[in-house]
Structure formats: C-alpha cells, structure tokens
C-alpha cells in the first residue's frame, strides 16, 4: 500500500472509531458489536505501531473513550481513571505474561509473580471518594482525567455504604462498576413501549446514571461491585489484600476472583468462567487479569491509556446459525422504517432468539440478504441480536434477494428516501397510525410535556375512538371524553384532564422538543430556543440562519424548515398556542438579584473558570446567556487578545466585548 493510502486509512479509522465512541459513551447506543469495535481499534493500533510517523497524538488509541457531560459538575480525578488493554486471544495473553515478566526482571522483582483474575463486569466505571468514613464524592470516568460528579445518583445504589465503620484511612478512593442485573433490566424494559426499550443493561446503567433526577435513578435499582482502592498510605501491599479489606469495610466485592501464579492457571480460570458466567445475575464480557503486588504494578507503570500491569480478556460474542423466515417492517414515530428479520428460533447466550434488527436498507444490501437465507446471528451483550453474515453456499437456487418495501406497511403511502440518508420514511406524518400514536407518546413523555396522567394504553384508546388525532387534540379533551374510555371513573378522568392542564407550565424549549420535529432532540431544542427565543421567529427562520445555530447542521436545519412548511404542522402549533402552551422562552427570573438587569452574554473561547460555572453565575445574577450571536446580544465575553471571527463580528455589529476579568467585576458589583 502506498504510504498516502495508509495515512488515509488511519485517518478514516480514527474518524469511524470516534463516531462509535461518541454513540457508545454519549448516546448509550452502538451500531456495531464490541468485537467489531475492538477490531477497528486494534487495526489502528497496529498501523500506528508500523507507521509511527503518521500517528496522531490525539488518536483514539491514546485516549480513554468517554467524555464529561454538561449536565453535571465536572471534577478532575485525583488519580486518572484509565481503560484496559484488551484481547480475544490466548496468544496475546501469553505475550502479556511474557512482557510482564520481562518488565519485572529488569527491576529485579520478577520472582513470585502473582495474578488476580476477576470477572469483567459490563457496566459503567465509577470512582467513590470517602472522607472520614463518609461517601464524599462519586464520579464517572469521563475522559479519564475529568468525570461527572454523580454523587446524588450514586447514593441511590443500595449496596453502596454511605458511612463506613472501623479503622480507615482518612481519605481514599474505591473504584468499581455500576451495573444493572438481568432481572432488573427485564423488569424495567417490560414497563417501556416497544420503541423505547433499552438495548442492553450496560446502556441502561449508563443512561440511568446520567439522569438529572435522583429519585428516578433510585427506581432503577442499580448495583455496584468494587474492585480497586487508591490513596496514600493504604494499609495493604497487594490487590488481593485490598479486595479483602474493602470487603471488611462494607463494600460489595464479587467473590469470583482467584489468585493465579502461572498463565496456565489464568487460562483455566478463563475456561471455567466461559459458561459459568452466564448464570451470574449480571452481564460480564470477559475477565481482567491484574498483577497482584502493588510494588510490581508500580514498576510496570502505565501507557497513555491503560496500566501495563493488567489486561482484559474478552469472550467471543456468541454466534448462532439459523434460517431467515421473513423480513417485516416497523414504523417509528417520525415515520422511519426499520426492517426486522424474523428468524427460526435459535438458542443463543441463554435465550431463544427469534428476531434481529436489520437497521436499514443498506444493511440488507450489505448482507446481500435473500429469502430463506441461512444467517449467522450474534449477541454480544446486546439484547437485540444482529445478523452478522449470510452462508451464501447454503442459499436455495430460486431464492430472491430481499427487496425493501415501497409502501408503508401501516398506511400504504409510498415511502421516500432522502439523498444521503440510510432510512426510508413514510411521509404521511399526520395520517399514519403508528406515527400519530408515536408522536403523542413522545409529546407526553417526561422530558417533553411530562403528562404522566396519560399512558400508552390510554393513548391507544383515545386514538381508536377518534378522540385524539394529534397532540393538539389532547388539550380539547373533556372529563366526559375521559369517562367514555374503558376503566375510567370520575376521579381518574378528572386526574387525566388535570394532568394535561398542568403541562401548560412546560418551558418553551421542552415544548419545542415535544413537537417531535425530526432530528430535534433535547439539546438541539435548547439551542434553537436560546437562539430564536420564540416560536414565531423560529417558524419563519431561513435555512441559513438555522444552520448558523451551534449544534444545528444542514440536516437538522432542513428538517425544521420542512416541518414548518407543512401546513398541518403549523395548524397544530397554532392550536397549541391557543391552548396556552409556552411559545417563547421565559423572561429571566430576576428574583432578588438583578445585577445584570437582563442583559445578554455570549461566552467565547477559553476561561480560567469553567464556562458552565460562569454561565450559571450570569443567570443567577439576572443575566441571560446566549450561545450564539443575534442582534439582541449585549456582550461578547472573550479573553482572546487577537482578533477572532467572533470578536470581529461583535465589533461590526456594535456589540460590547468584555474580558473575563471585566465580567467578574460586573458579577461582583
Ligand atoms: N460497540 C461500540 O460501538 C463500542 C464503542 C466504544 C467502545 N466499545 C466497547 O467499550 C470498551 C472500551 O471501553 P473501555 O475503554 O471502557 O475499556 P473496557 O471497558 O474494555 O475496560 C475498562 C473498564 O473495564 C471495567 N471493568 C469491569 N470489570 C472490571 C474489573 N474487575 N477490574 C477493572 N476494571 C473492570 C472498568 O469500568 C474499566 O473502566 C470495549 O470493550 C469496546 O468494545 C464499544
Ligand atoms: Zn405510513
């Protein structure tokens, strides 16, 4: 391969890996299996080794994959939270063993090498700081250097001691894995609508820890195993002692670990747990092998991303072979069509698999799927299995290629596919039953209008009886209407109507999200609300202005324009306005601190204090924060000494520019 091509491949691998990292850590979902992901990463690691001249210092091979969020306070870790090197092969493990022994020989401490083997729990890493026996701080791993402060959420984990007894170091950190048991995962999923179900316990755990409302987290019944301690002057010298000691302090330590002195013993442990792990109450995806002695750990040290004294061995995802019976199609809330493969039942990872997701038409094409094909199905921690391949040699001669449907299976409208997009859509947004019901379900959900007096079944009834055909109809519902539904009595009917009425207090950005405009998620809704301030302006906003809003790309901008170009939508919006929903952002609550007199600020560039904190203080002092320019902006805050595009624009528009120090002065006055 020419070197330019290698460089190209490395760049494109990094891009793809970053994309999957983003999905995995920020959005709690994945498009490929962990094994496929690890293959990509390993390919990049290999290329960087062979072509160090092309290695990018910011490569995903050099960084822990996650990030911090904006929703929690960010905390710098006292001790970095790292990832683990991983492998799927015995050969690599033997190499690891050799490396460790060699590394220690140099230090003269190779004798009496011991490993502790543990199961690799598939959840979310957490770090807990205890001071004077009390849980003081809980953080996520984040980017390894900084994590989210999720103390309130961690406190809902019942097996996590809040107060410790006994002889303890004054301050120390314990680290472990927060997880959701299979049982709890199934219980939770059973309460969710088909389209809202979580894919696997890990994603659910991650999503739960990110919830803003700890009361909701508490309902999720998370659990936690601890497997590491950090601190100064700790009363132990080996990992094994650490595990035993923290157990005696009251921490939940899984008793599945084992001390091994040879790599053969490690391999036996791996073989033993391959089947046994499936009877554990939680998901595991491999085992972790750690050097036992702290002194030896220290001598071996760390790479940029992981300790040299530990490695994860991951079990191959389970693969089953079965026959495709048919492909059916589901219609989502926004009309997107998802093909589903119906399979002849096959036993896989302890469950019977009958269906697998096919994502979209590209996937069917990629697999070159034909009728009655024999297919390989994989289930790597995912609840929804994936078809990973087709046994073409077993294909029946007359079998035809699977053709993606042309009409909506629910309303028979001709499907459309937008240039450059993977999904097909049913364009009949206001007349297609699953879209109508899906939109209403989206509208009432907690993050949107938060109408908890309505449930999926009630919506179904309201729709069946023709009482509700769109979200605006909800606000015309009367107690008599409610009483006409099955199972409703005076009290429950009143409650239902009352609940709808209470939702009128929902802030504008949530109303905007509730409309269910394609691609307008919660974050984008907030950005749009901040920028346009009211529905009226947003509604007539030209494409270019929409695209200029941070986080709003071409696709989103176009989707917003399309939405408001459809008269059926604007009619609904108008009816919602008449019903009394909030159609503009709230005037800032000036409260008793009106220092900044409602003036608006836009922060740009780097600051000595975290931007979110500065923004919080501006709001608390009666100012407004804008994430981008508009004519209404009063101040641009920037520390930059050179002219930036923003400061230039501010000067042109006659907007005052403040330094951070000047902002501080305004805040303090
Ligand atoms: N499918 C995808 O698109 C996708 C995308 C990104 C990452 N991933 C997966 O995520 C993983 C990469 O994430 P990572 O960097 O967090 O590495 P990792 O999850 O493989 O290993 C590090 C983590 O293991 C956990 N762990 C569980 N049990 C442990 C134990 N007994 N001792 C120590 N640690 C233990 C800790 O949380 C630690 O942070 C890979 O397995 C990868 O396949 C998948
Ligand atoms: Zn349809």
From TrEMBL:
SUPFAM superfamilies associated with the record: BRCT domain (SSF52113), DNA ligase/mRNA capping enzyme, catalytic domain (SSF56091), Nucleic acid-binding proteins (SSF50249), RuvA domain 2-like (SSF47781)
Cofactor: Mg(2+); Mn(2+)
Statement: the UniProt record of this protein carries the keyword Ribonucleoprotein: no
Annotated positions binding Zn(2+): 408, 411, 426, 432
Enzyme nomenclature, EC number: 6.5.1.2
Binding of NAD(+), residues: 34-38, 83-84, 118, 141, 177, 290, 314
Family matches, as SMART domains: BRCT (SM00292), HhH1 (SM00278), LIGANc (SM00532)
Catalytic activity: NAD(+) + (deoxyribonucleotide)n-3'-hydroxyl + 5'-phospho-(deoxyribonucleotide)m = (deoxyribonucleotide)n+m + AMP + beta-nicotinamide D-nucleotide
Keyword entries, A-Z: DNA damage, DNA repair, DNA replication, Ligase, Magnesium, Manganese, Metal-binding, NAD, Zinc
Active-site residues per Swiss-Prot or TrEMBL entry: 120
Residues in BRCT domain copies: 591-669
InterPro entries found in the cross-reference section: BRCT_dom (IPR001357), BRCT_dom_sf (IPR036420), DisA/LigA_HHH (IPR041663), DNA_ligase (IPR001679), DNA_ligase_AS (IPR018239), DNA_ligase_CS (IPR033136), DNAligase_adenylation (IPR013839), DNAligase_N (IPR013840)
GO molecular function: ligase activity
A Pfam family assignment: Nlig-Ia
Family: Belongs to the NAD-dependent DNA ligase family. LigA subfamily.
General function of this protein: DNA ligase that catalyzes the formation of phosphodiester linkages between 5'-phosphoryl and 3'-hydroxyl groups in double-stranded DNA using NAD as a coenzyme and as the energy source for the reaction. It is essential for DNA replication and repair of damaged DNA.
Protein name: DNA ligase
Lineage: Bacteria, Pseudomonadati, Bacteroidota, Cytophagia, Cytophagales
